[in-house]
Task: structure prediction
Amino acid sequence: MFKNNIKELTKKVSAAVDNISMPITTTKIAITGLSRSGKTIFITSLIDQLLLQKKITPITSRKQPFNVTIKSPTTSIKRFDYYSLKKIIKEYHQWPDGTDDITSTTLEFETKSRYSFLNNSKFRIELIDYPGEWILDIAMMGLSYEQWSEKTINWMKNIDEEIVKRYLNSIHELSDKSKGEGIENNIHQQYSSMLSFLKNNHYSNLTPGRFIMPSDLAHDPILCFAPIHQSNSSLHQVFKERYEYYLENIVKNIQLEHFRGFDRQIVLIDIIEALQNGHNCYSDMKDGLRSMMSLYDHRNKNFIAQWFSSSIKKVIFVATKADLITSSQHNNYSALLNEMVEGIRKKMNVDHIKTEAHIISSVKCTETVIREHNGKNLPCIQGISSKEKKKIVLYPGEMPHSFPSPQEWDTSAYNYEVFLPSNISYKDNIPFDHINMDKVVDSIIGELL
Ligand SMILES: Nc1nc2c(ncn2[C@@H]2O[C@H](COP(=O)(O)OP(=O)(O)O)[C@@H](O)[C@H]2O)c(=O)[nH]1
Ligand SMILES: [Mg+2]
Result:
């Protein structure tokens, strides 16, 4: 009798709960980082780990089991093409081409309720692949065209590259009479090519971001400006107008508008690139990351807070490509990442933002192997070299536990290569082999479960 009553009651509660349609909350996560830092591969692996997590040991340390499905896009942002990207890596064992678009994908999680009469609970996360170069434009906010030009020109004066010197010469020769479409295009083109050159040579703190990652504005005349010395020329006037238009309509109204809705930010950093390319590359990368964080800096309140309030309370810094070093060097790699993050935080007022740091490999391409050299056992990595298209064993050098001083920084001590995804068969639909992706997953969704 009592049992029947309980059954009846459970049914009633269940029916009542069915009638309450709970809105599904969506947590928006921006995956940012400079181009080639590994955003696209990271998101592909993240989705892969989540969709296929049941095939291996659970990806999170939480006990709660959950099911994940990809939902159709709800925003106007281009869809992140997980299926094609996964195919290129898993079936063709290649890296996909770089992209410069902002893309998005939504995953729905369903967790089993502990009580049979309650519905399973659902929540969504939206992952947004967001070019870090666009965030660098924040550094232009609050600067007049004249101030930005002066700052950029002074920065260029310290760069020892022919193409930079040529640009500085060209703008030095401009006069008050300089005007016309020909000269506008010429100066803009020179500056743009110089930025692309610097980008390819491991500089990262480059503005405007859209000159490097133009996306849908590739041939738009509104991008036709560049930093020049202050003058009364009509060229100066035209560039100033376009600069102001760019800040208002592209940076403020489009690029940063997305940031209003983000709940969390993941910042990918390619520390290995910095180590391999020396102190200038490192310090420029650090400046770039600091400028990306300036959105949260309370000292910027005067000009950013007038129109912008970020909803982000947690930033997860992730150093990618940990498979390019041996497993015995992972502790040092973590120490470098922590040093970089501390260095960024120290000079800023961002105490209200929680930060975490992890070293990862989204798609692990190598194994650590021991090789004998001059009677000593050396830890090396083994994988398929992208250059040689065959399996090689390589000694990557000793990873320091702290960034070397400019005088001690010897780039020839490091030997990092591009490795291709291993050519294992993923027939059983197992997720990508990885390093520490489970820690990142925990950090992203742990508290939502
Ligand atoms: N070895 C290794 N290389 C990676 C990994 N993730 C990314 N890469 C390399 O970094 C390149 C750039 O990655 P991508 O995700 O396209 O960078 P994005 O421009 O930030 O989207 C890839 O083509 C790979 O060569 C990884 O986990 N391991
Ligand atoms: Mg990409």
